[in-house]
Specification:
- By secondary structure, the protein is mostly beta strands.
- It is about 0% helix and about 30% strand.
- It has no helices and 11 strands.
- A hairpin with a 6-residue loop joins strand 8 and strand 9.
- The chain is elongated, with a radius of gyration of 17 Å.
- Belongs to the YjdM family.
- InterPro entries: YjdM, YjdM_C, YjdM_N.
- This is Zinc ribbon domain-containing protein YjdM.
């Protein structure tokens, strides 16, 4: 009987091993307890795999054209105080000069606090 271990929640590596009650990733060194919230796979992640939460600050990683307008959200635009929602556009935010808008998490990167 083989036991399948979940991939690393940090780097998504499949080479995870177990020592006592902890799971360890040999590639990035991340250690976590099985069943912890971070390895459940639920939650909204940014373009590089970081979990997002309400109130986080993110930056846009590519120029985004706004439908029905000639405006563009430029790469590097900081968006403060995001709100996570259900749906295709999973981030609600307010961008200065543009207003209230919905963004997809795949086009943003979380800013380190």
């Amino acid at each position: 009987m083989t036991q399948t271990l979940p991939p690393c929640p940090e780097c998504r590596s499949a080479y995870v091993y177990q020592v006592d009650s902890l799971l360890i990733c040999p590639e990035c060194g991340h250690e976590w307890a099985p069943g912890a919230a971070s390895d459940s796979g639920t939650g909204i992640r940014d373009s590089v795999g970081n979990f997002l939460a309400d109130g986080d600050t993110v930056t846009v990683i590519k120029d985004l054209k706004l439908k029905g307008s000639s405006s563009v959200i430029k790469v590097g635009t900081k968006v403060r105080g995001i709100r996570l929602v259900e749906g295709d556009h999973d981030i609600d935010c307010k961008i200065p000069g543009i207003g209230q808008i919905g963004l997809k998490s795949q086009f943003v990167k979380k800013v380190a606090d």
